[in-house]
Amino acid sequence: xxxxxxxxxxxxxxxxxxxxxxxxxxxxxxxxxxxxxxxxxxxxxxxxxxxxxxxxxxxxxxxxxxxxxxxxxxxxxxxxxxxxxxxxxxxxxxxxxxxxxxxxxxxxxxxxxxxxxxxxxxxxxxxxxxxxxxxxxxxxxxxxxxxxxxxxxxxxxxxxxxxxxxxxxxxxxxxxxxxxxxxxxxxxxxxxxxxxxxxxxxxxxxxxxxxxxxxxxxxxxxxxxxxxxxxxxxxxxxxxxxxxxxxxxxxxxxxxxxxxxxxxxxxxxxxxxxxxxxxxxxxxxxxxxxxxxxxxxxxxxxxxxxxxxxxxxxxxxxxxxxxxxxxxxxxxxxxxxxxxxxxxxxxxxxxxxxxxxxxxxxxxxxxxxxxxxxxxxxxxxxxxxxxxxxxxxxxxxxxxxxxxxxxxxxxxxxxxxxxxxxxxxxxxxxxxxxxxxxxxxxxxxxxxxxxxxxxxxxxxxxxxxxxxxxxxxxxxxxxxxxxxxxxxxxx
Length: 491
Known about the structure:
By secondary structure, the chain is of the alpha/beta class. It is about 45% helix and about 15% strand. Helix 13 crosses helix 14 and helix 17 packs across helix 18 (about 410-420).
């Protein structure tokens, strides 16, 4: 309780009297923090259970959420799962899912969890309360505004003082975040700087408010902003806010030194063997592939053209088991949902099938969506089934999509090259590097199938991933979990 009292004191110290009342109300709410049994594997974790290791986190696309298949996902979820599997197998892993990031550190200080895995930035005030692990990711706080120029994602501001930008404008950030701490630091030199620190919200919700025009500005981490710009093309980055932050896990200052040592050893290992970069690529590697105009046009065609073919995509899902939004994303990347589309190389139709592929799949008219869509979906399944069993999902699907685009033979060359270079041929994050090398004579002359434009499948796969995620966000297959504002994002 002494640590928790210190938390209260620090919050009050960084706050002015005009916010004292709301802070006290928030702290009262935090004192009564509960978890939601619908999203947590444990409602009331017993931290003193010698067989249980409790991670505290919160819902969000950068932490812990249910994906489109209704499976738990998120970078923090994956990291915690790997840590217990490889470094603490004697423990049962449990999650304490709190309502917001401002509840995370209090949960540690009140002894409700052993480790906070919650996309936490290392800040000066937080370091007074907890100890941090080795950092695993770097991010940049960004000032985000409404985008009135559909050709770009950035709208750099040209004035020196943030307080000048906000005159007559409304800006809000979630209460108890690193963004609030950064703004308090800026306020020392800009005393007229004003903003709202709101309880019971998160960055995703505030970014959506900016996109909808109900809020002028917010501050969010760059990796989240890049994701949200794919769902809201009218979000723009006005400027970076201060120096980059480092993200890390947090533990109480009274944590078992052996546990702290294991955590740091875990991050050292996954940095060295490429696992960390692989996971970061899985969640964020494709998020900047599309530009603002790409997203804008896609959303417009999702309203005007997609309804014409949605039933066929859903029928193809019933026939193949593939998510209809994946099939639709492939179709859009291939033809922009134009059933008469024909390329100079002779591929045609909604799924842009080659003549040989059409014959293989029994298609007599490639321009007929009723034939083209299920044939394309079945061909994707054929590629997935051809990928070796050693490749897990979602990398298995990513490699299959690359084969759909460039051919299985060239994909195999890229995997062979990955082995030679001591990369992992079963990871998309590694194979996409060697696909790019198929254009270089030093490499392709040593491979069975020779030259290939390996950039094409990389662009194809990452664009399809982005388009699929946009469809999942705007057209979820099941009701969103009430505790997660973006529970169906990405995988």
